[in-house]
């Protein structure tokens, strides 16, 4: 995941949601966004509590 820059990571997350890709993949992207503390850059990201499912 470190290969993706922050912007591409967020774009990938949004595209994965749009295309309704596998939930595990979307969760992986979301967890990386949280790990990088990028969740504040996008208002339409779910709350961080979702990562504890």
Automatic annotation (TrEMBL):
GO terms for molecular function: protein kinase inhibitor activity. The keyword Membrane does not apply. Keywords: Protein kinase inhibitor. Gene3D superfamilies: Sporulation inhibitor A (1.10.287.1100). InterPro entries: Sda, Sda_sf. This is Sporulation histidine kinase inhibitor Sda. The lineage of its organism: Bacteria, Bacillati, Bacillota, Bacilli, Bacillales.
């Amino acid at each position: 995941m470190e290969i993706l820059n922050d912007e591409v990571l967020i774009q990938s997350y949004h595209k994965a949601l749009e295309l309704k890709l596998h939930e595990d993949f979307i969760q992986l992207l979301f967890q990386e966004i949280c790990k990088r503390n990028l969740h504040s850059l996008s208002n339409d990201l779910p709350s961080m509590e979702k990562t504890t499912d």
